[in-house]
TrEMBL record:
<dbReference type="Pfam" id="PF07992">
    <property type="entry name" value="Pyr_redox_2"/>
</dbReference>
<feature type="domain" description="Sulfide dehydrogenase [flavocytochrome c] flavoprotein chain central">
    <location>
        <begin position="162"/>
        <end position="277"/>
    </location>
</feature>
<dbReference type="InterPro" id="IPR049386">
    <property type="entry name" value="FCSD_central"/>
</dbReference>
<dbReference type="InterPro" id="IPR015323">
    <property type="entry name" value="FlavoCytC_S_DH_flav-bd"/>
</dbReference>
<dbReference type="Pfam" id="PF21706">
    <property type="entry name" value="FCSD_central"/>
</dbReference>
<dbReference type="GO" id="GO:0016491">
    <property type="term" value="F:oxidoreductase activity"/>
</dbReference>
<dbReference type="InterPro" id="IPR016156">
    <property type="entry name" value="FAD/NAD-linked_Rdtase_dimer_sf"/>
</dbReference>
<protein>
    <submittedName>
        <fullName>Cytochrome c</fullName>
    </submittedName>
</protein>
<dbReference type="InterPro" id="IPR037092">
    <property type="entry name" value="FlavoCytC_S_DH_flav-bd_sf"/>
</dbReference>
<keyword id="KW-0285">Flavoprotein</keyword>
<keyword id="KW-0732">Signal</keyword>
<feature type="domain" description="FAD/NAD(P)-binding">
    <location>
        <begin position="30"/>
        <end position="142"/>
    </location>
</feature>
<dbReference type="GO" id="GO:0050660">
    <property type="term" value="F:flavin adenine dinucleotide binding"/>
</dbReference>
<dbReference type="InterPro" id="IPR036188">
    <property type="entry name" value="FAD/NAD-bd_sf"/>
</dbReference>
<feature type="signal peptide">
    <location>
        <begin position="1"/>
        <end position="24"/>
    </location>
</feature>
<dbReference type="Pfam" id="PF09242">
    <property type="entry name" value="FCSD-flav_bind"/>
</dbReference>
<dbReference type="InterPro" id="IPR006311">
    <property type="entry name" value="TAT_signal"/>
</dbReference>
Length: 428
């Protein structure tokens, strides 16, 4: 079966990319990593495997990590929450010192991190992969209490996806599932649209008289033609998506009546209401002075060192790294390059050149996957996408039906392979 250049790149970029400097041994140093998700766990594993002289401490308040990727498959009934939850024992066995505590303060001047129990952890270099917080109140009426009735399911540390799954199971056949999707930037740009697909897959199978209405604060979204092709093909009559120009922007919610209200005053009632609110960098990053007025963390594009505070490297969703998206793959790519830069700085060498990769896979139906790929390098003030380096999966109309089926099946397999590979890389 012949693969396109773009599809080959999507598969190949899932492999571990080791910066050249990793082949040289750095001097010893204490590296402390805050946050044990895609960025932090990848950084800890990469540091131990490629720079064994480094003393590596990972600080993560939870003893397990549930991934956002593949959480939408829990909604479709294709995955269990246990299958996307991982522990840190194997990282510890590799020599990473794992501290399951909350961080209460970072002191860049003294190069110390203070923990909830009062312990202070010294460092030579600090890596922060703090993740996101939700902007409670950005949508009128949507606060943490409202999220119990109108789940977001967007941050496993704040709310498990199983709450939304339970509401979906309890929804009557013929009911309405309403989604509110935020404007950019937010964690995992294709994520809401994969969620639409997985909920629609479940409704088609289990509650075929039901409907999904997605209200979007944007007029366009990642992989839009591919998702809409799939919805038309797989879920006719089930999915309705409205962009901002079609009164898709949700301005306020009414949890007591399970209604959302749009910009022009329309009220829609749902049996299940999934509100994904606007987001910002997590509080520890804000408290450490790493964010600017946007609520996100600017970084130096060549190294991922904070542009606000010297000596701290910032990874993952919390960063301003556009055009690179906020994704698990991107966070892992940030992590490897940042650790290589840290090792170089401890050894008194210049940082290695940066080439960063991202692939975002999405499941849209049984044996049906799509993807978007990008390769990035640092420019003078921000990352830039390498011209001609990536793109999205080919659209349905460009292939014969047989070829389309084969291609979509391959992409679904690539997605599963990527997920198995990256979680093993982090926790295996």
């Amino acid at each position: 079966m012949t693969l396109s250049r773009r599809t080959f790149l999507a598969a190949a970029s899932a492999a571990l990319v080791v910066p050249r400097i990793a082949l040289a041994q750095p001097g010893a140093g204490r590296v402390v990593i805050i946050g044990g998700g895609f960025g932090g766990a990848s950084a800890a594993r990469f540091a131990r495997d490629h720079f064994p002289a480094l003393d590596v401490t990972l600080i993560e308040r939870s003893r397990t990590f549930t991934t956002c990727p593949y959480g939408n498959l829990v909604l479709a009934g294709r995955r269990t929450i246990e299958s996307i939850t991982f522990g840190y024992d194997r990282l510890a066995a590799r020599g990473v010192r794992v501290l399951n505590q909350s961080v209460t303060a970072v002191d860049p001047a003294a190069k110390r991190v203070r923990l909830a129990d009062g312990t202070e952890v010294p460092y030579d270099r600090l890596v922060m992969s703090p993740g996101i917080d939700l902007r409670w109140g950005a949508i009128e009426g949507y606060d943490e209490a409202a999220s119990a009735r109108m789940p977001h399911g967007w941050s496993p540390s704040l709310q498990p996806i199983t709450l939304l799954r339970r509401q979906l199971e309890e929804m009557p056949d013929g009911g309405t599932f309403v989604m509110a999707i935020p404007d950019n930037p937010f964690r995992c740009p294709p994520g809401p649209y994969e969620r639409i697909s997985m909920v629609a897959e479940y409704l088609k199978r289990a509650k075929p008289r039901s409907k999904l209405i997605a209200l979007d604060a944007k007029n366009g979204f990642s992989k839009q033609p591919l998702f809409q092709d799939a919805w038309e093909e797989l879920y006719p009559g089930i999915v309705e998506w409205r962009g901002a120009s079609s009164d898709g922007r949700v301005m306020r919610v009414h949890p007591a009546t399970m209604e959302v209200e749009t910009e022009f005053g329309e009220k829609l009632k749902g049996d299940v209401v999934n509100v994904i609110p606007p987001q910002m960098a997590a509080r520890i990053a804000r408290d450490a002075g790493l964010v600017n007025q946007s609520g996100w963390c600017p970084v130096k594009p060549a190294t991922f060192e904070s542009a606000q505070v010297d000596g701290i490297w910032v990874l993952g969703d919390a960063t301003i790294a556009a055009p690179m998206p906020k994704s698990g793959f991107a966070a892992s790519s940030h992590a490897k390059h940042a650790i290589a830069c840290i090792a170089a700085s401890l050894a008194g060498r210049a940082p290695p050149p940066a080439t960063l990769f991202n692939t975002c896979y999405s499941h849209v139906g049984p044996d049906y996957g799509i993807s978007i790929v990008g390769v990035y390098r640092p420019g003078p003030t921000s990352l830039v996408e390498v011209e001609g380096s990536g793109g999205i999966s080919p659209r349905n109309a460009t292939m014969t039906p047989e070829r389309r089926q084969q291609h979509r099946q391959l992409e679904a397999l690539y997605a599963d392979g990527w997920y198995a590979s990256i979680t093993n890389e982090m926790f295996g």
